[in-house]
């Protein structure tokens, strides 16, 4: 089985920090750490199963098909496969306006 390398880009790292800060402030540091661990575990599962994601609905409507997403509810992890590498581009709360955020970040 081929193993891919997962790379988390700076914007996704910023997303993770913001998620942690929000969860810690609104719940507890322990809960925030557990949430971050779950998200990161989901990201690194892509090392073995990169094709398990699907094209985000918001991007499918525009005809852009190079990005995929997986979920760690309620978070959506948007990534791209290039050869043997997985690039995690963004990690977003699915309850936010995803269309607007993706337009700003991925379609620039």
What would CATH call the class?
Alpha Beta
Instruction: Tell me the fraction of residues in β-strands, as a range.
Output: 25-35%
Mean pLDDT over all positions: 90
Measured on Cα atoms, how large is the radius of gyration?
14 Å
Total beta-strand segments? 4
Query: What overall form do the CA principal axes indicate?
Result: globular
- Overall structural class, as computed from helix and strand content, comes to alpha+beta
Helix content: 40-55%
Kindly list the characteristics that best describe this protein.
108 residues; 25% strand; 42% helix; globular; 4-stranded mixed sheet; alpha+beta; YaeB-like fold; single chain
Strand and helix map with partners:
Elements: E1 5-8, H1 10-26, H2 29-44, H3 57-60, E2 67-72, E3 75-82, E4 85-93, H4 98-105
Parallel strand pairs: 1-4
Antiparallel strand pairs: 2-3, 3-4
Helix pairs in contact: 1-2
Structure explained in plain terms:
By secondary structure, the protein is an alpha+beta fold. The chain has one domain: RelE-like (YaeB-like fold). It is 42% helix and 25% strand. It is built from four helices and four strands; from the N terminus they run βαααβββα. Strands 1-4-3-2 form a four-stranded mixed β-sheet. A hairpin with a 2-residue loop joins β2 and β3 (75-82). α1 (10-26) runs antiparallel to α2. The N and C termini lie far apart (35 Å). The model has no long low-confidence stretch (mean pLDDT 90).
Structure at a glance:
This protein is an alpha+beta fold. The chain has 4 helices and 4 strands; from the N terminus they run βαααβββα.
């Amino acid at each position: 089985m081929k193993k891919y390398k997962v790379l988390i880009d700076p914007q996704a790292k910023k997303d993770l920090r913001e998620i942690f800060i929000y969860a810690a402030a609104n719940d507890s540091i322990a809960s925030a750490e557990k949430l971050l661990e779950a998200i990161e575990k989901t990201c690194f599962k892509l090392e073995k199963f990169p094709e398990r994601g699907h094209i985000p609905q918001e991007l499918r409507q525009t005809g852009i098909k190079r990005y995929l997403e997986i979920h760690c509810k309620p978070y959506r992890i948007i990534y791209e496969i290039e050869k043997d590498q997985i690039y995690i581009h963004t990690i977003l709360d699915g309850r936010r306006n995803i269309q607007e955020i993706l337009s700003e970040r991925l379609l620039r």
